[in-house]
Structure formats: structure tokens, C-alpha cells
């Protein structure tokens, strides 16, 4: 009987220690979810060759030495894409003159419909410093792969829509991944990330 009591007390002590450890882990500060790495961040980004809304060729070499943001979307998107681009437009206004140091790329995931002309028309509603990119499907797929972003065509009756990654990737002037921007975050958090990005 005495031995059983000792065993029970031992189990209580072990459980208590485990619970204390969980409390310490729970209370340890953690970065916000949108700041946490996306896969192996060392491999995010890379070479690409696409065309902007003015018909000019754009590659990763044109971004060298300047921080930039990348958002994947499409012009027929009903809500996420226009909301994100409008949010980025507001953030660029809030950055003031520092926004001129930032490149913002809107890369279509629907190159079949998003021609150069369609992208130019679509971007007329947003900050004129935002650059839209399109190209052959394999070139677009290559850039999606560079950022480990997701895009999938979803049939809708006689047409289709696109599922896609909704994060904004923030890249330093050295071409390395810095963070992500989640448009559900408070505006001051988003602005702080962009301020730190352009200050690098």
C-alpha cells in the first residue's frame, strides 16, 4: 500500500512538472503567424522572365538592390485581389516618399485571361507604382514555384475562377525573403513591416 502511494505521488509530481513546462512554453513570446517563415525561406525567390502591363520585359535583375513585395492574383478575382491591391495602395500612401524605394509586383496566376492590356486596365484603379506581370503559362508557373505559392483553376459553370496564395511576400534588396504581409493584420502592423523593409 505504501509503495502504491509513493508511485501515485511520483505520477503527480511528473504531471505537475509537465504542466509547468507547458505554461512556460505557452507564455514564451512568439512572432505573429504572418511573420513566420514560409517553408525553407532561403529558397524563396529566384530568376524569372515576365512582361509588365506596358509590354516591357521584367526579370529578377531589374529588382536588384531594391526591396520589393510580390502578390499573386488575377483580374477576375471577386474580392481578395482587389482588396489586397487597395490595401497595398493605402500602405504606399502611408509610407510617403519612402514608397518610391519599394517595388510592388502583382503577378497573375491566370495568364490565359490576364493579357498586358487587361492588366493595364485593371491596375488603373490602384497606385500607379504597382507593376503587374504576366507571361506564358510555364513562365508564370516557374515564378509561382520560386515562391512556393499555390494556384489552381476551379471550374464554375461555363467559366472558372482561381484558388491562390493570398499572402504578400516581402523581399529585401538582396533578393532574400524577409517576411510576409497578411492583409488581415492591423494596418499599423502592416505599415511597420513595410517601413522596416524599405529601411534595410
UniProtKB/TrEMBL annotation:
It comes from the Bacteria. It holds the Pfam family SCO1-SenC. This is Protein SCO1/2. Signal peptide: none annotated. Belongs to the SCO1/2 family. InterPro entries: SCO1/SenC, Thioredoxin-like_sf.
Amino acid at each position: 500500500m505504501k509503495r502504491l502511494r509513493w508511485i501515485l505521488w511520483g505520477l503527480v509530481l511528473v504531471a505537475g512538472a509537465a504542466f509547468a513546462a507547458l505554461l512556460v512554453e505557452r507564455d514564451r513570446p512568439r512572432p505573429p503567424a504572418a511573420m513566420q517563415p514560409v517553408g525553407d525561406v532561403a529558397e524563396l525567390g529566384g530568376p524569372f522572365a515576365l512582361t509588365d502591363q506596358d509590354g516591357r520585359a521584367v526579370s529578377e535583375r531589374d529588382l536588384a538592390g531594391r526591396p520589393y513585395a510580390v502578390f499573386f492574383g488575377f483580374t477576375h478575382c471577386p474580392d481578395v485581389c482587389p482588396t489586397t491591391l487597395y490595401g497595398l495602395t493605402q500602405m504606399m500612401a502611408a509610407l510617403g516618399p519612402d514608397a518610391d524605394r519599394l517595388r510592388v509586383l502583382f503577378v497573375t496566376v491566370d495568364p490565359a485571361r490576364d493579357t498586358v492590356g487587361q492588366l493595364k486596365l485593371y491596375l488603373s484603379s490602384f497606385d500607379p507604382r504597382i507593376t503587374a506581370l504576366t507571361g506564358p503559362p510555364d513562365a508564370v508557373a516557374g515564378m509561382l514555384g520560386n515562391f512556393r505559392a499555390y494556384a489552381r483553376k476551379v471550374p464554375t459553370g461555363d467559366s472558372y475562377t482561381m484558388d491562390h496564395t493570398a499572402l504578400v511576400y516581402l523581399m529585401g534588396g538582396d533578393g532574400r525573403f524577409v517576411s510576409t504581409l497578411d492583409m488581415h493584420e492591423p494596418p499599423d502592423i502592416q505599415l511597420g513591416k513595410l517601413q522596416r523593409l524599405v529601411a534595410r
